[in-house]
Design brief:
The protein has about 280 residues and is of the alpha/beta class. It has 13 helices and eight strands. The protein is about 50% helix and about 15% strand. Helix 2 packs parallel to helix 3.
Length: about 280
């Protein structure tokens, strides 16, 4: 059997940075070039979004492979907790699973069991998959990575979840929380800036950090958004998404292009102005 070095989680490495939040972005487009471009841009991690996109598990499989080869951490957000899907994505090489709408400690515990091998969980063993380097690493290393390096991120997206943040964060196997401010505020029928929503989020961040679990959020593709995340205590932040950034860049290009008038038009205007003055 080939001897390979112990693999460490790129996401955990990024969280260990002390010079600012780890930077990631959502990937919603099915083209593998999207992940490649995010890696070339310098993101620490990508979250392949199976909740709010039409991507398949097979597409996620290809995204994960490109991410690992280009040095960006692949996390996958599942649409809902399903042990079979979680197992397939982790064996595809995902460094972590993000589970939406985790409202209670019991739900967090169920997610943790799906992500971990026995005796901590119920994940099945498939060491001849990409996660086991197609059998090139020992089963012991495959199991070690799954237990110690893979991350579980629970999303806090309701007032109930925010109030239970400390209990959710304290569940064995939960490695981080992600605040879903859009869903949380919508569930309360209020804006994200409403004092009640702000208080819920601040409390969730405070309670999670109190038990030593990092918290992340999703924001815009601007320095001010990242600064706000850092000031709020977030250890990682998602800057927009691949589709929105592509759209924004395209719109900016068209706006710039439309601001330029054709040379012939400028010449005609100048001639008419000059003729009018004579």
């Amino acid at each position: 059997m080939t001897t390979l070095p112990l693999r460490t989680s790129l996401f955990r490495q990024a969280l260990a940075q002390t010079d600012g939040p780890a930077l990631g972005t959502w990937v919603k487009l099915p083209a593998v070039e999207s992940v490649e471009l995010m890696a070339l841009a310098g993101f620490d991690f990508v979250v392949i979004d199976l909740e709010h996109s039409a991507m398949s598990i097979e597409t996620a499989f290809h995204h994960i492979g490109v991410a690992l080869l280009t040095g960006v951490s692949p996390i996958v957000r599942v649409p809902a907790l399903d042990g079979g899907i979680v197992q397939r994505l982790l064996d595809a090489g995902a460094e972590g699973i993000m589970v939406p709408h985790v409202d209670t400690a019991d739900q967090a515990a169920a997610a943790a069991r799906a992500v971990r091998f026995p005796p901590r969980g119920t994940r099945g063993v498939g060491s001849t998959s990409r996660a086991g380097a197609w059998g090139a690493v020992s089963r012991e290393e495959y199991l070690r990575y799954g237990q110690e390096e893979v991350v579980l991120i629970a999303q806090i997206e309701s007032a109930e979840a925010a109030r239970n943040a400390a209990a959710i964060a304290a569940v064995d196997g939960v490695d981080a929380l992600l605040i879903g401010a859009a869903d949380l505020s919508t569930s309360e029928g209020k804006t994200e800036a409403h004092p009640d929503v702000v208080a819920l989020i601040e409390g969730a961040v405070r309670d999670s950090l109190a038990v030593g679990v990092p918290v992340g959020n999703a924001g815009g593709a601007a320095a001010s958004a990242v600064q706000g995340s850092a000031d709020a205590g977030y250890a990682f932040t998602l800057m927009s998404n691949d589709a929105s950034m592509l759209g924004a860049a395209a719109a900016a290009a068209v706006t710039a292009g439309r601001s330029i008038r054709a040379r012939s038009a400028r010449t005609t205007d100048s001639a008419q102005t000059a003729g009018g003055e004579r």
